[in-house]
Design a protein that fits this description.
The chain has 660 residues and is α+β, with helices and mostly antiparallel strands. The protein folds into five domains: 3-123, no CATH class; 135-320, P-loop containing nucleotide triphosphate hydrolases (Rossmann fold), CATH 3.40.50; 327-423, Translation factors (Elongation Factor Tu (Ef-tu), domain 3, Beta Barrel); 430-548, Rossmann fold; 552-647, Translation factors (Elongation Factor Tu (Ef-tu), domain 3, Beta Barrel), CATH 2.40.30.10. It has 19 helices and 33 strands. The strands form seven sheets. Strands 25, 26, 27, 28, 29, 30, 31, 32 and 33 form a nine-stranded antiparallel sheet that branches. Strands 15-14-20-11-12-19-16-17 form an eight-stranded antiparallel sheet. A hairpin with a 5-residue loop joins β16 (369-371) and β17. The chain is extended and about 105 Å long. The protein binds guanosine-5'-diphosphate.
Length: 660
């Protein structure tokens, strides 16, 4: 159903937004702002309430005139009544204001007309064609058109704490920079460009899967390849597993870097063995995961790692459009005491130049300075490269999409709209997913996704739960169930962020939920379900899945009857019948057959028992049946009655399985 913004509807009806907002709050819709979009039914309900109030006001006005006319010579008393009514009337006038809506003969018909007009406008307006922000910064796929340029791949380094993420980035920055700049990089802007074999590779400097997923939760996916770093002396650790889950959920290819091979205790083979448990099969063992052995400290194996990064991303054919309108993603932002807000933006489309006006989330401004990743001032920077932007009025959030604006005024207006839209969405709940919402998603669609983040107390339970859930997912075609991440341990903040980014619910088995995870889940409206018995968890998900489905109806035969005699009642022919088995019901679908051939199919409109109208009648009993759709009854006709019943899906599925 189409939605309308309160201010557009109010404008169209000649009302003030506040009038509609007040009416909505009387209807229990709290926290609406002029920017809130409401569905047409809600709009109708609010308008109806206003129309009723206006009608009351009109009547009150009329009554007050009468009272004034009939007033006795005691002016004091009559005056009081008049004043009260007048006040009331003024109040109504204040609330509703003079408006064509109230002056219309039939305000509700007027509303329908205006709604239709708004819908027609929405269809014509280019607004409908605006590309959603995340799509603007998504990677173009497929072969590059002729005038496009190849862009460097973007890499994020993920892994357990102390396994060497920072060291790897430092070493790469210091050894693979443009000649003459060795050791000269002291300032970090949040992303670095490594030169390797005359090509560039962009590294996001905030390592770790939390930052990676937080950006994704904002809608922006910047990473083309994830380097999973695992210390050869320590092996796969809890955060390694989390990182694998997050990278997989994002659909980003993984290159494994087994680090610290300079240590005598290094055991790369053990690491590879452990990776197998997480379905990462090294190429040398017949799988498709590239594994490099490196020492981030000594630099050993780093060239091979960079080569592999290029190899893996070359397959993706990354390209950009330098001539397109600018769009970028914030990868890091901070407040600098002397320069104001600073934002590192990865340019995804077009070119960003000093003097451009940009907006990212609700932060906007004219670009005063641009600095490349080494801190050198530049006038402009093209797609594929990171740049530090000075000139915004506020600090945007990482992951926010930045676009060009026509003027600072246009940017301010857009920012204000976003502020009120954000306020409205905070009031109506966050971005997270609940099973209920999936039900809405399924409406009008063939399939719905049910994504699950799974946490359990032991590895065995993780595996058992995961395979049972996946088996459950295969039961129903309409539900695309996928476990996007599973791991051992309590439900953490990072799980909630992942759930937001992947539009997933969280299922915990015999585990707790950290306080911060609980808070974030509340804010983001993410559903967390904790169970202690596997069977219960599966039953619950199964119920939810079946509850998600659109109901399926089936014709069920409820009874038969035979026509014994015909009566006339005005123009109607009534068939006097005997119910042979089951029952007849008013409103049931009936099929009338004569000598084995069907003569009528339609609705049983009237059912009588003696002189009384009844809604149902059971066998063995006599009754009169009639319908305005059919009059050519004959004695001996046979009636079969059917009703539509909702089929319980689970039983059907179970029966299907049993029948196989
Ligand atoms: P992070 O927490 O993943 O960023 O890990 P760091 O980069 O801070 O590294 C943690 C510790 O491991 C530091 O003391 C590093 O010097 C050390 N380290 C990192 N890489 C290597 C390596 O390849 N060999 C050795 N021997 N130590 C390393």
């Amino acid at each position: 159903m189409a939605k309308v913004r309160i201010f557009s509807l109010a404008k169209q009806l000649g009302l003030r937004s506040e009038a509609l907002i007040t009416a909505l709050s009387e209807l229990g819709v709290e926290g609406a702002t002029p920017a809130t979009a409401i569905d047409e039914d809600t709009a109708r309900a609010a308008a109806q309430l206003l129309a009723e109030q206006a009608e009351q006001a009109r009547r009150a006005a009329l009554a007050s005139q009468q009272v004034a006319a009939e007033a006795t010579p005691e002016p004091g008393k009559a005056g009081e009544v008049v004043t009260e009514e007048e006040e009331w009337e003024e109040e109504a006038e204040e609330l509703v204001g003079p408006s064509p809506f109230y002056e219309a003969e039939d305000p509700l018909a007027e509303l329908e007309r205006q709604l239709a007009q708004l819908e027609a406008q929405a269809r014509e307006e280019p607004e409908a064609q605006v590309t959603p922000l995340p799509e603007l910064v998504a990677r173009p796929t497929g072969p590059a058109p002729e005038d496009m340029v190849a862009v460097p791949p973007v890499v994020t380094v993920l892994g357990h704490v102390d396994h060497g993420k920072t060291t790897l980035l430092d070493t790469l920055r210091n050894t693979n920079v443009v000649e003459g700049e060795h050791g000269g990089i002291t300032q970090h802007i949040g992303a670095s460009e490594i030169e390797f074999q005359d090509r560039r590779i962009v590294f996001i400097d905030t390592p770790g899967h939390e930052a990676f997923t937080q950006m994704r939760a904002r809608g922006a996916q910047v990473t083309d390849v994830a380097v999973l770093i695992v210390a050869a002396d320590d092996g796969v650790m809890p955060q390694t597993v989390e990182a694998i889950g997050h990278a997989k959920a994002a659909g980003v290819p993984i290159v494994v870097a087994i680090n610290k091979i300079d240590l005598p205790t290094a055991n790369p083979d053990r690491v590879k063995q452990q990776l197998l448990e997480h379905e990462l099969v090294p190429e040398e063992w017949g799988g498709d995961v590239v594994v490099c052995e490196i020492s981030a400290l000594t630099g050993q194996g780093l060239d091979e790692l960079l080569e592999m990064i290029l190899l893996v991303t070359d397959v993706q054919q990354l390209w950009g459009e330098p001539e397109a309108e600018f769009a970028g993603i914030v990868v890091e932002a901070s407040m600098d005491p002397s320069q104001g807000p600073l934002a590192t933006v990865l340019v995804r489309r077009g070119t960003l130049s000093v003097g451009d006006v940009v907006i990212g989330g609700t932060a906007y401004g004219r670009v005063r300075h641009l600095r490349d990743w080494r801190g050198k001032s530049v006038r402009s920077i093209e797609c594929g490269r990171p740049v530090e932007v000075v000139g915004l009025n506020d600090v945007p959030e990482a992951g926010e999409v930045v676009t060009a604006a026509e003027s600072p005024k246009a940017a301010r207006q857009l920012a204000e709209e976003r502020v009120s839209a954000a306020r409205a969405s905070t009031l109506t709940g966050g971005a997270g997913v609940r099973l209920r919402a999936l039900y809405d998603e399924l409406h009008g669609q063939e399939r719905a996704d049910l994504n699950i983040v799974l946490k359990a107390d032991a590895w065995g339970s993780v595996q058992a739960m995961q395979s049972s859930l996946e088996a459950l997912g295969n039961e129903l075609e309409e539900i695309n169930l996928s476990v996007v991440h599973s791991a051992v341990g309590e439900v953490t903040e990072s799980d909630v962020t992942l759930a937001v980014a992947s539009k997933a619910i969280i299922i915990g088995f015999n585990v707790g939920v950290s306080d911060s995870a609980r808070r974030l889940a509340n804010d983001e409206n993410v559903e967390i379900r904790i169970y202690n018995v596997i069977y219960e968890a599966l039953e619950d998900v199964r119920d939810a899945m079946y509850g998600l489905l659109k109901p399926v109806y089936e014709q069920q035969r409820i009874g038969t009857a035979e026509v014994l005699q015909l009566f006339r009642a005005g123009r109607l022919v009534v068939a006097g019948c005997r119910v042979a088995e089951g029952r007849l019901e008013r409103g049931a679908r009936i099929v009338v057959t004569r000598n084995g051939g069907e003569v009528f199919e339609g609705t049983l409109e009237t059912l009588r028992h003696f002189e009384r109208n009844v809604s149902r009648i059971e066998a063995p009993s006599e009754c009169g049946v009639s319908t305005s759709e059919f009059h050519r009854w004959q004695e001996g006709d046979r009636i079969e009655a059917f009703i539509e019943v909702e089929v319980e899906r689970r039983r059907t599925a179970a029966a299907d399985t049993a029948g196989q």
